[in-house]
Specification:
By secondary structure, the protein is mainly alpha-helical. It has helices at residues 2-61, 102-111, 117-149, 174-205, 220-223, and strands at 67-73, 76-81, 91-94. The protein has a 3-stranded antiparallel sheet with strand order 1-2-3, covered by helices on one side. Strand 1 (67-73) and strand 2 form a beta hairpin. Helix 1 packs across helix 2. The longest helix is centred in the first third of the chain and has 60 residues, at 2-61. The model is unreliable at 5-17 (pLDDT under 50).
Length: 228
């Protein structure tokens, strides 16, 4: 009798959580597939908009200017350079891989349980706006990663003693530090950050809607009557 009561008590909250998670998983997968199909149509003009915005920001922050213009060639953005840096090869960026995290954010917000429609729409608009800013920043860092990798512009270091040094060993050279930060930051974001960003935005925007299970532990006397 005692083991049976324990089994019944333990199975109830677990079943509830499993059912809820299963339904969320189905809704998430269906929403993700729909968002991915829609994104195939929206992404090309969106990519051109991000590239145009990124170029404008680069023109504002670069002194002297290195980046000249960006031209779309199919699915790629071709970044050219000013006359002073004409020896630097043009950079080709496949922007589709920069923006493939949009459907994930859409699916997480639209499929999440316990969110009112107005709250869901507001969270989606805020999340997409913030994610768009990260796309522009991603474009800017990717362009400057090209400069840092080729040791040109503000990342040019001629002292060979820094060639194989890490960040901490290069603190005496601000230019080398900036180069390493750009190289490492873009490497991390391109491999992990792009998928992590929509999850973080979803957790921040919808944090108060996550179901929290607090199973109540019954008193000893209620479940197991004392002998005698």
């Amino acid at each position: 009798m005692r083991s049976r009561r324990l089994a019944i008590f333990a199975s109830q909250p677990i079943f509830g959580r499993t059912s809820s998670l299963s339904w969320f998983g189905v809704r998430f997968l269906l929403t993700l597939l729909g968002a991915m199909a829609l994104w195939l149509v929206i992404e090309p003009p969106y990519g051109r908009l991000v590239a145009a915005g990124g170029i404008q920001v680069l023109h504002l922050i670069e002194s002297p200017r290195i980046t000249d213009a960006v031209h779309m060639v199919g699915a790629y953005a071709l970044v050219s350079h000013t006359e002073a840096y004409k020896d630097v090869a043009d950079q080709r960026l496949e922007l589709r891989t920069h923006h493939h995290n949009v459907p994930l954010l859409v699916a997480l917000i639209l499929a999440g349980p316990g969110i009112a429609r107005s709250r869901r729409v507001r969270s989606l608009l805020i999340g997409l706006s913030l994610l768009s800013l990260t796309h522009v920043l991603d474009f800017i860092v990717a362009v400057h990663w090209h400069y840092a990798f080729n040791n040109v512009g503000p990342y040019r270091v001629t002292d060979l003693k820094y060639l194989n040094r890490g960040l901490w060993e290069s603190l005496d050279n601000p230019v080398q530090v900036a180069k390493l930060l750009i190289l490492d930051s873009w490497l991390f974001y391109s491999s992990v950050g792009r998928l992590l960003m929509p999850i973080l935005l979803w957790m921040v925007l919808c944090r108060d809607t996550f179901p929290v299970t607090r199973p109540t532990v019954p008193q000893h006397d209620d479940c197991f009557p004392s002998a005698g």
